[in-house]
Amino acid sequence: MGLIEIVLATLCLNSTCLLDEDLTYQDVSVNTRKMQFAQLAEELRQENLIITTLKNDRLSGILKDNGTLTGTGVAFDLLNILQKKFQFNYTIVLPKTNVWGSQKTGILNMLKEKRANLSAAFLPVLTQYSTDVSYSPSMDTGEWVVLMKRPQESATGSGLLAPFTLPVWLLILLSLVVVGPVIYFIIYLQSKLCPDDQNKVFPLPACIWFVYGALLKQGTTLNPMTDSSRLLFSTWWIFITILTAFYTANLTAFLTLSKFTLPITEPKDIGAKKYKWVTTQGNALEDTVTTDGSLTDIGNMLGKPYRYLDQSDRTILKQYVDRRDMMFIREKPIVEYVMYDDYKEKTRNQIEEPKRCTYVITRFSIVSFSRAFAYSKDFKYKMLFDSTIQHLVESGIIKYKLREELPDTEICPLNLGNKERQLRNQDLMMTYEIVGGGFIISAVIFVIELAVKRSHKPKQAKTSGKSNLLLNQKHTIHVNINNNYEKFGQPPHNAKFITPPPSYHTLFNPPNNENLKKKNINGREYWVYDSLGGGTKMIPMRTPSALLFQYTH
């Protein structure tokens, strides 16, 4: 026996291989199944099924023509495929209330009481209804997203506060308050522990002002002498340098790029920030937000809705989203169609391009459910319909039908292109507020200083009145260094001319000083001599330099 035969024999002896009797049984079961399908298909041709549905925009809907109800939407496109294949008839019956299962007059009750055979609608597969109805294979996963009015500015803010988040700003303010006293305490402690070191203890206000001045890139007159104080100063300077570098880079990006963020980043933000939201009546959210009058986990996360509306999506968009600035939670394909129709309408009305995308959809989903057709319990032809629906799902036909009329590109994306833009006056609003606030604070402090000065002036006048009289009787001398006059008494002064000192060349002219030499430097004549400290000094010989030098020395 060759190697190939041994391998094949080993595989056939494995438990996964089918024996002859298993193959025979499978053939029998497949043949039996085909016979059952053929028999059910033959019986279905004689049937007139009762179909119910939900009014759910493009997914499923009803048109009434001369008293006859005609189904519309993707769900009825699939139902018509089934009808064309199995040649059955159907009659549409609407529920009293356009809801799935939240009320007793909805679709669930009709299927439960077998007043309808199946529902042609994209219904969420909810486990709490599994005992009353049966579901077809999952046709897709429905995502419920938020459609909201596009904010005027990004949620991260604009202007000077945009680069950093609130915790970062709070930590920066905390560091400004704490670092100054910490530097003072460490320098003071070091001077006490090491009294032999030449450590100069800077006062607390000077340390605080150094911390503030470093933030504004100012210099300092403080000259630390010890290594510990120098490390403290340099550490703060390095920290401020890195901080300002990050701030400058982020501020440039925020002011010049059009990256946009929404005020909500996850579902729980809706309830936490107490945003009002609406949805349509009969929506899956109505069955999941509340149960027996109490909020579920999803309901606690989102908060109670403002209202379940039995209105068209276009009406909800105009009345509640546009005018009242509410959030609209709906299935993703439907809100995409609503936005696309709104964009096309504004294009036809020749509205400017930047003003056409007035709405935006969140990138995250609120909830997700598998969606399927629902049958009455023990529906006779469930096996036939399930097989065909499964083929439609696997072939991608349902996915194609859901987005058949939508463009391939994203409709009104969150970021309308990361391109450079010019700064707006609104971007500099924080700058104006800071400047205005600074002027107001300085004016208030100035008024306080004037009030304090005036409150102390009368006391000084009373206490110093007698002393002023005595001073007026005394002979006082005021010397003005800018001229050669002495002033006596109070104004008007009696001035006396004082002879100026002799010029330097009469004092240093040889042979009076042997160390003095006359030199010409850069076209000017100077007396050059050696001072007592060992340095060399130059005395100008000509006016006006000689005159200025003479009266300043």
Automatic annotation (TrEMBL):
Signal peptide: 1-19
GO biological process: detection of stimulus involved in sensory perception
GO CC annotation terms, alphabetical: plasma membrane
A GO molecular function held by the record: ligand-gated monoatomic ion channel activity
Keywords annotated in UniProt: Cell membrane, Glycoprotein, Membrane, Receptor, Signal, Transmembrane, Transmembrane helix
Localization (cell): Cell membrane
UniProt cross-references to Pfam families, sorted A to Z: Lig_chan (PF00060)
Major place of residence: membrane
SUPFAM superfamilies according to UniProt: Periplasmic binding protein-like II
Membrane topology value: Multi-pass membrane protein
TM region(s), chain numbering: 168-189, 201-216, 236-257, 434-452
The Ionotropic glutamate receptor C-terminal domain, residue ranges: 166-420
Protein family membership: Belongs to the glutamate-gated ion channel (TC 1.A.10.1) family.
The protein's name in its UniProt record: Chemosensory ionotropic receptor IR5 mRNA
